[in-house]
């Protein structure tokens, strides 16, 4: 979002005081609450401050998958290992954590009476979009939360309000997004949110909540939510504006997609985060160089062979006794997501190249031997501290396609035509065999989800896992599917075969597996908050 002016300083000034009488004392030739909110352009400028929140450049998004069965960090994740105490304060419920929602409500409360024009319509849609975006994070973390539509002060009764139901929160988020969809444009030359970004977020919220209610047996019409998700995704697909990016090279296109310096105009970018030298840069490439984590054995074994069959059934599988053999005859996304020796590891400015011998087990690089390659640029210029300008996806069409396939399967409506424009469009990029509605095999290594699901849904979930690895969404998937017990599988904390022992690398010596507890599906509310507000109930198990 190179052309957007970030107005954090302005908003910080506006939000430091809630007393309108005091603010009106400022001279009229200075920015104040009393003289700022005059035109749609004012609201548009104000809304620009929220764009950095869509993709925090300080956060290496692959690290979110350390909570899941996809990755194994060098040190045990305290939350998923049941070593997370109820915090006394903070914990995602602090004043700063609610501040973005308060800032949105602050502006929304000042729209009435301002003459409507194109800028005001755009800003109003953006603000409603952002409120839904921020509340979605609250829902995923805590479940039921108070729904707040007004900017509060120290005397507001809402400060001691109880938590609203999931249904209330979700309905309000979807209403915000319906408003945004009606008011946002189809395209934006300024890289601002569009109606298609709002449709994508609506689909993601409805899919998340619909499957959460289904698998956690929460009251509410989960089928209706799944239908809303399907409808939102269909509008994006049927617009014809997006497609799977490909240059026709199945051996490199998937890797290249995530190390591009310019995603503006990329057909897979529903909404992208753009970076520019000396303006806004990130440190993710450097962090991927020393990530203190790596893919798990369980994740690596989930890749199909090039015949479209799983390793337990395919005659093409070469086994894992030799590290390089694991990549032979496998889905090309595997060698474009996981480093192997034949690929350059570092390319220096003088043209020299270094390669990393594999398997390598180093805690500060990769404890499992399965180094995260996706999103990692080997060029030395991108490894310099906080100077990388490779762009990132906020909403990616490829992820939307696997989401749409999943929701259609959940509804019992996943036809071959649906598969061909979703999963199979992604497989075409890497020239993998198409998935059929009649899968054609029973994989003995399909996860034990805790309840029976169809072979087709099993394979769609596999496709989602592989296509979106290191994008930070696997933990959310496990939560909504109520699949936390998958973390008890010993292979989710193991690495590649260790040549010294001929056994899978043990990441945490003396620990064979972890024990899951269902309370981890939701975070606890900090003790200070329940003490200050006796109407707040604690989440189950805490």
From TrEMBL:
This is Putative outer membrane starch-binding protein. Residues 97-200 form the SusD-like N-terminal domain. One of its GO terms (cellular component) is cell outer membrane. It comes from the Bacteria. Belongs to the SusD family. Keywords: Cell outer membrane, Membrane, Signal. Residues 289-542 form the RagB/SusD domain. PROSITE patterns: PROKAR_LIPOPROTEIN. InterPro entries: SusD-like_N, SusD_RagB_dom, TPR-like_helical_dom_sf. The lineage of its organism: Bacteria, Pseudomonadati, Bacteroidota, Cytophagia, Cytophagales.
